[in-house]
């Protein structure tokens, strides 16, 4: 299982955020996030948003540090990239649960 995370450089809600992604499946991504205790509400289309203070937790759990550009490239290469406004369920996507 290999997951990827970009540096916490994305501002929002008074914090900086990282994106956690898989290059295999949403199921793999959800399992990793569940193991970290990341709530499912942090999942947005094709990635989890992690606040800067959780970055080290993800890396310690095995996420590989990559650039933001690499995150997008990995998602595209795996066919997992879902842009804003795209259909809610992409082929191979796992339904969100609350």
From TrEMBL:
It comes from the Bacteria. This is DUF4031 domain-containing protein. It holds the Pfam family DUF4031. It comes from Streptomyces anthocyanicus. Residues 4-76 form the DUF4031 domain. The lineage of its organism: Bacteria, Bacillati, Actinomycetota, Actinomycetes, Kitasatosporales. InterPro entries: DUF4031 (IPR025109).
